[in-house]
Amino acid sequence: MRIRTRRTTSVVALLAASGVILAGCASQRGDSGSNGSGSNSKFVFAGSAEPVTLDPFFASDGESFRISRQIFEGLVGTKPGTADPAPSLAKSWDTSSDGLSYTFHLQSGVKFQDGTPFNADAVCYNFDRWYNAPKSAQSPDLTYYYGALFHGYATGDTAKDAVYDSCQAADDSTVTVKLKSPFAGFISALSLPAFGMESPTALKKYQDDSATDPRTTKYSTAHPVGTGPFTFGSWERGKQITLKKNPDYWGEKAHIDQLIFVAIADPKARATALQNGEVDGFDLVGPADIDPLKSAGFQIVNREAFNVLYLGMNQAVKPLNDPRVRKAIAYAIDKDAVAKATLPAGTKTADEFMPDVVNGWTADVPKYDYNPTEAKKLLKEAGAEGATIEFNYPTDVSRPYMPAPGDTFNVIRSELQKVGLKIKPTADKWDPDYLNKIQGTTKHGIHLLGWTGDYNDPDNFIGVFFGAKTKEWGFDNAKLFADLKKARGLATPEEQKPLYEAINKEIMDYLPGIPLAHPVPSLAFAPNVHGFQQSPVQDEVYNTVTIG
């Protein structure tokens, strides 16, 4: 979910402002009782930024999705602690043999938080809303996930490529969604917050999809309505978002009365806020903070690594267009040393661009074990001995796949210099400069970047990276693009598996970049917090959390 790392302007001036804000939050807490369900019990959680919007259809950033998961639910969720799909608002589904028709059997008696019935008509309203998004909303900035996964809308330049066909309600609890072409990852994709079910009543009253920026409408800032365990309370810009327990929730009701989210951009400041009792938990613990927090009695909770950190190589610049140079760089890097020095304990080094739990992963790919002698030999063969390589890396950021980019850069730079390469360091602030440069221009060389998977499907990893020509990678490989398109269009994961295994071999032979590691992301909680269920895809809902 690299795109989901977009964020708004920082809402707090890091330490100074954050301390004041969070102290105010802490002072409002009531007595939580022994199980966090006492009078006016509150749970305060720190993320790295404010959300961009409260309407998940127009969201693509992790902090917006963190809020969405508390208010909204989709037809499909994930099995606790995994990236695998599981029933949610749909208790089961049937798939046609051609992979073009999905019939969902819905939970009964569910209502949206405004009292609107959740039924088959509401499902079709949501699917048809996405498909009929106005042309002004058909851009990656606004509807990234729908455009990327469903490929087209009812109108506009991409209409001919649209995967969605229609939605029909058989009765209140049975609905059939038809596709124009097979999409084996369809069920898994529906677990994304972007495809959460939203109240048709609230959308009609408060949302304007044709607005200049539909992320800032009354609905998107103050009236989001779903079926989830928490309802929207208030958004105090630059301070906090407050959610309230939904007393009519159809599933396990929340144990806490209020759920408060605050934004603290700096990882060290988040750790300090936890130590000072200003928050009850936070995400993205810096590797250097893990042991001190543990020693002080705080809980460290690790997510399963469902990500990849990689060193990208832009073939639009020389000598990176020479495969011998790319392979020399791969041989020059000691991945174990990189992981040990800069990544959290438990991190696994990577041999390909997806975790081993994803369909199509195979151990039988070309590998480039640390071999500086081979690296020097290849550089000599390519006439690139002593070549100068620009090395781009971000500052002012901590990502689940890249907790300390400056440290990672320094280790890799040292290893590349040992084989005779000259490194030109180029550091840019993550927001907004770094991603814009790497993904939007060809003015970069090798670079650190990564991805956290949104759902368990190979297309969500290697399809995102290598499915088409991009400025990040700077290559045009028609065979690879065609192979990925063919694999994506098959009807079942079983049919896809051998194709994706072959594609992973193809990628690692071509070597557009170097997969480095699958870092373990960590969260931290106060000693009295219980019941949090971590998720490799961050499908984390706080209704099970208790304090006491």
Précis, in short:
This protein is 31% helix and 20% strand. It contains 17 helices and 21 strands. Helix 10 runs antiparallel to helix 12.
Percent strand: 15-25%
Integer average pLDDT: 91
Low-confidence spans: 2-38
Task: Report the major sheet.
Answer: 7 strands, mixed
Rg over C-alpha atoms, rounded to the nearest angstrom:
23 Å
Broad shape: globular
Describe the strand arrangement of the main beta sheet, using strand numbers.
Answer: 8-9-10-1-11-19-12
- Assembly state: single chain
| Helix content class | 25-40%
Distance between the termini: 34 Å
Number of distinct helices? 17
Structural class: alpha+beta
Total strand count, please? 21
How would you portray this structure in words?
This protein has helices at 14-27, 62-71, 120-131, 140-150, 186-189, 200-206, 218-222, 267-275, 287-295, 323-332, 335-342, 372-381, 405-418, 430-440, 462-466, 478-488, 493-510; strands at residues 42-47, 76-78, 85-87, 90-95, 101-106, 164-171, 174-179, 230-236, 240-245, 258-263, 281-283, 299-302, 307-313, 348-349, 388-395, 422-429, 446-452, 513-518, 522-525, 529-530, 546-547. By secondary structure, it is of the alpha+beta class. It has a seven-stranded mixed sheet with strand order 8-9-10-1-11-19-12, sandwiched between helices. The protein has a six-stranded mixed sheet with strand order 14-18-13-17-15-16. Strands 4-5-7-6 form a four-stranded antiparallel sheet, covered by helices on one side. A hairpin with a 5-residue loop joins strand 4 and strand 5. Helix 10 (323-332) runs antiparallel to helix 12 and helix 16 packs antiparallel against helix 17. The protein starts with 13 loop residues before the first helix and ends with a strand.
